[in-house]
Design brief:
Elements lengths: L2 H16 L4 H10 L2 E7 L4 E6 L4 E5 L13 H13 L6 H10 L2 E7 L4 E6 L4 E5 L3
Antiparallel strand pairs: 1-2, 1-4, 2-3, 4-5, 5-6
Helix pairs in contact: 1-2, 3-4
C-alpha cells in the first residue's frame, strides 16, 4: 500500500479517537482513497483498512478501558449506535468503544459497498446496522 493511502488511514484512525472528524467525514476520506471498508478488533486493539484491489494495512489502536464481556448484548449495541448517530454532547468514540466492549462487542466490520456495519461478539453473535439513507 502506498504511503498516501496509509496516511489517510492513519488520519482517519486518529480522527475517530480524538473526535476531529465525524463518521460520515471519515467514510468520505476513506472512499476517496479507494478503501472499501475496515475492521475493528477490540481484543487485539487494532484496525485493518481494506482497499478495493485486495491490499490492506493493519494499525494499532489505543486500548480502551475494560474488556470484552462474554455475553453479546445486541439490544445494547443498537442503543449505542443510536447514541453515536445522535452525537449528543456526552458522546465520544472512546466512550462508545468502552461501552461496546462492555456489551460483549469483540469488534466490527464496516463495509462501504454493503453500506452496513456488522458488530460481533466473542461467540460470533452479530448485530447488523445499515448506513442511514
Amino acid at each position: 500500500m502506498d504511503a498516501e493511502r496509509i496516511s489517510v488511514a492513519e488520519t482517519c484512525l486518529h480522527a475517530a479517537h480524538d473526535g476531529s472528524l465525524s463518521f460520515p467525514e471519515i467514510i468520505g476520506k476513506l472512499l476517496a482513497a479507494d478503501f472499501e471498508g475496515y475492521t475493528i478488533d477490540y481484543r487485539r486493539n487494532s484496525q485493518t483498512f481494506y482497499l478495493t484491489d485486495g491490499d490492506s494495512v493493519a494499525m494499532d489502536m489505543e486500548p480502551s478501558a475494560g474488556h470484552v464481556a462474554a455475553a453479546f448484548d445486541a439490544v445494547e449495541i443498537e442503543r449505542l449506535v443510536r447514541w453515536a448517530q445522535a452525537n449528543p454532547a456526552d458522546y465520544s468514540y472512546v466512550a462508545f468503544c468502552e461501552k461496546a466492549k462492555g456489551a460483549g462487542c469483540a469488534g466490527y466490520l464496516v463495509s462501504f459497498m454493503g453500506r452496513r456495519v456488522v458488530y460481533f461478539g466473542r461467540t460470533a453473535e452479530t448485530h447488523v446496522e445499515h448506513f442511514p439513507k
